[in-house]
TrEMBL record:
It holds the Pfam family RuvA_N. The lineage of its organism: Bacteria, Pseudomonadati, Pseudomonadota, Alphaproteobacteria, Sphingomonadales. NCBIfam families: ruvA. Residues 151-198 are annotated as: Domain III. GO terms for cellular component: cytoplasm; Holliday junction helicase complex; Holliday junction resolvase complex. GO terms for molecular function: ATP binding; four-way junction DNA binding; four-way junction helicase activity. This is Holliday junction branch migration complex subunit RuvA. Residues 1-64 are annotated as: Domain I. Its main location: cytoplasm. One of its GO terms (biological process) is DNA repair. It is found in: Cytoplasm. Homotetramer. Forms an RuvA(8)-RuvB(12)-Holliday junction (HJ) complex. HJ DNA is sandwiched between 2 RuvA tetramers; dsDNA enters through RuvA and exits via RuvB. An RuvB hexamer assembles on each DNA strand where it exits the tetramer. Each RuvB hexamer is contacted by two RuvA subunits (via domain III) on 2 adjacent RuvB subunits; this complex drives branch migration. In the full resolvosome a probable DNA-RuvA(4)-RuvB(12)-RuvC(2) complex forms which resolves the HJ. Keywords: Cytoplasm, DNA damage, DNA recombination, DNA repair, DNA-binding.
Amino acid sequence: MIAHLKGRLEATGIDHAVIDVGGVGYLVGASSKTLAAIGAVGEAVMLHTEMLVAEDFIRLVGFASAAERDWFRLLTAVQGVGARVALAILSILEPAELNRAVAAQDKAMVARASGVGPKLAERIVRELKDKVGAVALGPAALATAIPAGAAQDAVSALLNLGFRPAEASAAVAAAEEELGPAATLDALVRLALRKAAK
């Protein structure tokens, strides 16, 4: 198995990159987030990889981080999720965002990905709930605690409105600090929206 590739980025496409490693060009499938993160054509790059082997093809899929690769493995273990759907999910959600969505059972967040309907999103969050601890998230994600109760629902509401996870968490935390732990969901969302708009 090929664990990673280090070389020069030769070309990129909508869903792939070509990496020249010692004169051999490797075609590597990737999420749009990975393609945006790896740099410009001609630069040195390193991608973590997963090799997919089937009866009629061998394909490499590349990831900007080991956490993204680990999530790809978890996602493709869910019935109905192939490489294309897993990459679509990873194109809209960072590993830390996906971790929070699964931990909070937020199927709407997962369903934003192309090719993921409500039933598949529900299956993904249900089947992966007990496995999210197996994924290495990195220091930024570990520093962000998953809020509980109304605060968790308020963060989910802000995420569904298009706020970035860090913005949503910070706004809800500030609102909860001002309103106290007994705040209702409605009050938290209203105040968090005002704080996020500042």
